[in-house]
Specification:
The protein is an alpha+beta fold. It has five helices and seven strands, in the order E-H-H-H-E-E-E-H-E-H-E-E. Keywords: Acyltransferase, Ribonucleoprotein, Ribosomal protein, Transferase.
């Protein structure tokens, strides 16, 4: 993506509406597969933007993606990764995940963790390509969650 100007910016309370819009757009493709709204679409972003670190990714002044993270004692939990549907597959997910790795390293954390719906197989393949391993699966609602992690 040569010639692009990328900017990560920490979200503030004023960003809650645009976060909600981006998350709903990014997760819409999964609704038919799991027959319900994915959890990130039900999050209270007015509260999450204060309690978690949500970083917005801009490309040439256009909001294209976001990553929501929660620092823990020894790892950084990636709570949500959302990329605008019109630019999915353009490398923004990799930029977001690299951003999380660098943040975890800067906080002297040993690793990065995440979880995803077991039916989101393309996401699981993507995370595996980035070095994540499956730690465990657990039943959740009408399916299961896949917990994944990697050292940084």
């Amino acid at each position: 993506m040569p010639g692009h100007k990328y900017l990560f910016r920490r979200a503030t309370a004023e960003d809650a509406d645009v976060i909600r819009e981006l998350v709903h757009a990014a997760y819409a493709k999964w609704v038919n597969l799991i027959r319900r709204e994915p959890l990130p679409t039900r999050t209270d972003y007015d509260q999450a933007v204060v309690a978690h670190q949500i970083d917005l990714l801009y490309d040439d002044d256009h909001l294209v993606a976001l990553i929501e993270m929660i620092p823990a004692v020894d790892h950084l939990l990636i709570e949500n990764v959302a990329v605008r549907p019109s630019v999915q597959g353009a490398g923004y997910g990799r930029l977001l995940m690299r951003h999380a790795d660098l943040l975890a390293q800067s906080m002297a954390l040993r690793g990065v963790c995440l979880y995803t719906n077991a039916k989101f197989t393309e996401n699981i393949r993507f995370y595996r390509r980035l070095g994540f391993r499956v730690d465990r699966e657990e039943p959740f609602l009408d399916g299961s969650l896949v917990h994944m992690s990697k050292a940084v």
